[in-house]
Amino acid sequence: MKYPFEATIFLLLFSCSHKDTSEQKAAVYKDSVATRFFRRTSGWIASDGALSVALADRRTLWLMGDSHIDDYDSATGTIPCLFQVRNAALLQPANSWSRADTETLTGDGPGIKSLFKTKADDNYWFWPGNGIQLKDTVYIYCSELKREGEGTFGFSGTGKDVWAKMKFPEMYVAGYDTLPDFDGIHFGAGFIKDENSGYVYAYGQKLIPMAGESEVYLARFSEDNPGLPWEYWNGSDWNKNVADVAPVGRAAVSPHISKVNGKYLLLSTQLSVACDQGKEIYASVSEHPAGPFPEKEELCTIDDTLQGHYPFFYSVAAHPQFLEGDTPDSNGDEELLITF
Prior knowledge:
The chain is an all-beta fold and 340 residues long. The protein has one helix at residues 32-37; strands spanning 15-20, 26-30, 44-54, 60-69, 88-92, 103-105, 124-134, 137-147, 155-157, 162-167, 172-178, 186-194, 199-208, 213-222, 231-233, 238-239, 249-251, 253-260, 263-269, 280-286, 297-301, 317-319, 336-339.
């Protein structure tokens, strides 16, 4: 949960580890090993995102949004305010938290050299959501954005989301598949493979206007053919009409869903679109993929400040692949790594 650099960077990434104590209370501490892993002076430098895909060979693919690449100024300890690419990735070796052994993945252009890109026009771009490996392909849910208006929030979604496909184990971008119209739901909040049914559960979210919260939805698709029509949970059964989908839970913003020790973990954050607007990370746990997810509970409060101000923060994510002995800074217990 420390800053990747000194208090000079524009985009921040933190990490923490969570464990259950003997009193069954949530214990959260800053993980120095994972935080140092993201403190870099070459290749990928800083970004938002930090969603991870556990690969079959125990490597981890870290998916990043707007990213700074090779722009660290060692003389001043700073980076420019403007990033170079709209998305990028880090390929982490198995059983290693070595920065030197981790590969930065970007694209070849034309224009902005984002890893995932289908248009030469840089007024359009993708921000990656979560992903999942199915056989020899890694599928990454990408939302298409376009420039609209001015300023920091001068953009909007196009409604044309895609699967970006990466070839495993080589890990190059192999192509794109257009996803169906999900009626305004962003289904990149988490993917969980159900080994018994052959389906992949896909979690989506839609912001509730003026509420500072999101509704969470559930769909599923075939592990063998993600291109087949999806099915949506309507509250009691599955059907193929997205208009009938019913929420399985309610969260704060930036919801992320993963499966941890046989249970379904829903993380979210307090609304934060500027400094000092939010500090809380919330959690809710269900025994079943379709919930019910109980009322969110506070998991932790970030305590990092810069010149007396709390940072703009979002994009919380859990990384269960590091539960089994690979958790950095482990205290000898089973711990869950969380980044935001």
